[in-house]
Structures are given as C-alpha cells and as structure tokens.
Amino acid sequence: MKVATELPPTSPAGRAERGGEAEAGFTLIEVVCALAIIALVVAILLPEFPRGTSRARLEAYALQIAAVLNADRNTAIRRRSAIATEIDAPARAIRAGASGALILLPADVQFDATLAARCNQRETGSSIIFFPSGMSCGGVIELTRLGIGYQIRVNWFTGGVEVAPLNAL
Question: Per residue in 27-53, is it b (16+ CB within 10 Å) or e — as a string?
C-alpha cells in the first residue's frame, strides 16, 4: 500500500516551513545587494581619508629639489651669470631661477631652510645664488615627515648639491 506523504507548506518567499519556523539563511540576491551597498559606501568615503606623503615620495621631493638646484648651478656656469633659486618656506615652494619651474610641497611635509643672510656683499633674501664660477651662497633644505627626513645641502665653496637622509628620532 502506498502512503501519501504531505509536503510541508511553503511561505510566500518560497521557503519551506518546518513546524511553523522558516529556514534560516540568506538568498544569493540578498548577499549581492548587501555587498553592493557596502562597496558603494566605501567608494564614497575612500577619497575622504587623508593620504600622507610616503617615504618614497618624500625622497622623490628631495631628489627633485636637488635636480633643480643642480640645473641652476649648471645654467649659471654655462651662461656666465648669477642664477638665484628662490626658497619660500612659508608658501612651501621652490622656484628654479633658470627655468622658472615650481616645486610645491604638501602640507604634511615639514619644510625648513637654512640660508645665508648675506652673500657676495649683498642680501640674499630667501634664495640660493649660484655664480658663474660654480660657487654658491650655500644653504640647507630639510624635508621631514613623521621622523623620516632628508637634507638637501648646497656647498658654498663648490656649489655642489647632495641629498642626505636624516637619522630617525
């Protein structure tokens, strides 16, 4: 004899009910919708997080400043005239005297410059002057962020430019 088995009733969502309780779990569409909402929120909020200057980017700024200083020194020798590289610490900017190229530093990088007050019997202001002989007024520029830093040193006698890492504190 064949016994008829009764199928459990289903809810409107199509889930089988057992003893009056619905099966626990999520459907695939619910999971996909939740992930889509999370991805949308992350995409909106991600640009709001501050991005700091990395160690590699800090070193790149130091090398870029050294390249500008070297280019101004070489131009002064080639043109046989004095070339001044403007250093504006409050504005966080360095402007090449020969090409007019401008380097702007981000706000999270600490920028300090130690420059000669007088050079060749005149005021230097906020600049490093390179002479046709290759000599300069000299100076030191420091870039630091979170204990990591670099010094760009300009030798007054030779006009040579070097980049040196600072010791971490």
Answer: eeeeeeeeeeeeeeeeeeeeeeeeeeb
Residue 46 lies in a domain: no
> What burial class does residue 129 get, using C-beta atoms within 10 Å of its C-beta: 0-12 exposed, 13-18 middle, 19+ buried?
buried
> Are the C-beta atoms of residues 113 and 150 closer than 8 Å to each other?
no
Domain membership flag for residue 28:
no
In 80-138, where do the E strands start and end? 83-88, 93-95, 102-104, 110-115, 118-119, 122-123, 127-130
Domain count, the chain: 1
Please provide the distance, in angstroms rounded to a whole number, between the alpha carbons at the two ends of the chain: 89
Question: Is residue 26 domain-resident?
Answer: no
Q: Two tokens at 40? A: 């949308």
- CA dist., res. 91 & res. 117, Å (int): 19
Q: pLDDT tens-digit profile of 134-153? A: 999 999 999 998 888 999 99
Confidence of residue 11 (pLDDT cuts 50, 70, 90): low
Which residues are bridge partners to 21 per DSSP? 18
Q: Are 124 and 113 in contact (CB under 8 A)?
A: no
